[in-house]
Specification:
The structure holds two protein chains of two kinds. Chain A is mainly alpha-helical. Chain A is built from four helices and three strands, in the order E-E-H-H-H-E-H. Classes of the chains: A mainly alpha, B alpha/beta. At the A-B interface, helix 2, strand 3 and helix 4 of A face strand 12, helix 7 and strand 16 of B.
Chain lengths: ~110, ~400
């Protein structure tokens, strides 16, 4: 057993690392993300952003009526390169350029994980 | 200890005010403070403040791919990057921070005649300058990255000393060491206006405060023309949005950063395991990419995915976790603007790095600090002199601007 408390399980960011960031005067969500890596793993902050917000509010470092999560980054859910490679870029002005390399995206699912 | 704060107290006046809390501004502050400390007895240590409108690393310094390479097409850039990479070797210890610096090399590949020709030319140039770049046959390139589609490679160059870092800790490291040496770092405070006051400037801040500075350094990258616009200064560098993405993390499988010269695609595996990748996208007609907007597009995902899966088919089943964008600060001739602004000797530009400022910063910030405090010259400083902005732009010497 360990006494370590993890706020971000994707990137193994512990409560003591958050404390350390706050000790360095980094008290906003965006700053803490960039100092600790919190929220940059597979769940993209879905699990850790709430506890972090609560912690900042509880310590009087953020106002619950104005605190915002860090900028949401597309895609909303992880998507394979294979699935996107088969799509025609939307609103594509230069239709003469052949960007897509024709492959059947369905075959991608049969590939073993690299 | 603080890493910069909105409540850092500022004096009425400083010797040098650096605007912009990215790798250039903080790296310069660190070197100025370091040189100032060891300066001869009798000379005063310069007082230095860094002003950042948002949080540190909020601009391009926190949004780039973290690549550092010697493989450029111009001898001056090759030599500068040899120095920068050499400095990075000792920088983790010097800054007391894990930079996640990994020298897995850069592998440039080419298919077309034109792109192959550029690699032949580069390999010859690099040999003359002393960079350890090697020309590789397709078979040798595949030995370095076995997952490449062999039909996509005609010729390649490989430099084992090129590498990648994780940009965030790199910048925090400079900030911490600058602050430790007495630099004041004020965040979340914009410079709304620069006013000429005697030989120096008064900075009007978004907090209502005023700060006087004998010299001002403009290290605001893509935002640099906004800072001095009201002084009637306009330099020809322009912001340009570039996109990038990272994948889910994988066990280490890819040593070098790979650049496909024909498509402008690049990808590397970060020390955290993610594939970090971007591509040169032509501007859409009638669409303003100089707007300072930092949005993301599906077009980028589609084009990049088509190119990446064609070049390295095993990536088809790899998942994209997130995409973001950042702003290049592009000059017409591809060279930075570093030095006194025409007509404003005490307003120093440190911008226009055209997408390669991050990798050059370790060398650049040191040489600019030595120029500011000791008057030391450097061949790149004459080349980067902003005075050339008053003449029609020269031919672009550098054609290896990627992403």
């Amino acid at each position: 057993m360990t006494d370590r408390v993890f706020l971000c399980r994707c990137e193994d960011v512990t409560l003591s690392e958050i404390d350390h960031a706050i000790d360095e005067d980094l008290t906003s969500v965006e700053e803490i993300k960039r100092y600790t890596g919190l929220g940059t793993g597979p769940c993209q902050g879905r699990e850790c952003i709430g506890p972090l917000a609560c912690l900042l509010v509880r310590r009087g470092l953020a106002d619950p009526s104005t605190i915002q999560p860090f900028t949401a980054r597309p895609p909303a859910e992880p998507v394979t390169f294979g699935a996107l490679a088969g799509t025609q870029p939307p609103f594509f002005a230069d239709s003469s350029a052949d960007w897509t390399v024709h492959r059947d995206p369905d075959t991608a699912a049969e590939e073993p994980d690299p | 200890m603080s890493l910069g704060s909105p409540s850092t107290p500022l004096p009425e006046a400083v010797d040098i005010a650096i605007v912009g809390g990215g790798v250039m501004g903080l790296g310069l502050a660190y070197h100025l403070a370091k040189i100032g400390k060891t300066a001869k007895r009798g000379s005063e240590r310069p007082s230095i403040a860094v002003l950042e409108g948002s949080y540190l690393v909020s601009g391009a310094s926190g949004r780039n791919g973290g690549g550092l390479r010697m493989q450029w097409a111009d001898a001056g850039n090759v030599a500068l990057m040899m120095e920068s990479i050499d400095l990075c070797r000792g920088l983790a210890q010097e800054l007391g921070i894990n930079l996640w610096f990994r020298q897995g090399g850069y592998l440039f590949i080419a298919r077309s005649e034109a792109a192959s020709e550029r690699l032949y030319r580069n390999a010859e140039l690099h040999r003359d300058v002393g960079a350890p770049t090697r020309l590789l046959s397709p078979a040798e390139a595949l030995a370095v990255v076995p997952h490449l589609d062999p039909s996509m490679v005609q010729v390649a160059t490989f430099n084992p000393d090129d590498g990648v870092v994780f940009p965030w800790p790199f910048v925090w490291g400079y900030a911490a060491q600058a602050i430790r040496r007495g630099v004041l770092v004020r965040t979340h405070t914009r410079v709304d206006k620069l006013e000429l006051t005697g030989e120096g400037y008064t900075l009007r801040l978004s907090t209502g405060e005023r700060l006087r500075a004998a010299r001002v350094v403009n290290a605001t990258g893509a935002w640099s023309n906004e800072l001095h616009r009201e002084l009637g200064i306009s330099l020809p560098n322009r912001p340009h949005r570039h996109e990038i993405l990272s994948s889910e993390p994988l066990r280490p499988f890819l040593d070098p950063l790979v650049v496909d010269l024909d498509s402008g695609l690049y990808f590397s595996q970060s020390t955290r395991g993610e594939l970090v990748t971007g591509i040169s996208l032509p501007d859409l007609a009638g669409y303003d990419d100089e707007s300072l907007s930092m949005h993301s597009s599906l077009r980028f995902l589609s084009v990049l995915s088509a190119r990446l899966t064609a070049l390295m088919p095993i990536t088809r089943s790899l998942k994209i976790l997130r995409q973001w964008s950042g702003l290049y600060d592009v000059s017409p001739d591809g060279d930075a603007y570093v030095g006194s602004t025409p007509g404003h000797p005490n307003l120093v530009q440190l911008c226009g790095f055209t997408g390669h400022g991050f990798m050059m910063a370790p060398a650049v910030t040191g040489l600019v600090a030595r120029w500011l405090l000791c008057g030391e010259s450097h061949p790149m400083l004459s080349r980067w002199d902003p005075v050339r902005s008053q003449h029609p732009p020269g031919r672009r010497r550098e054609d290896m601007i990627i992403g």
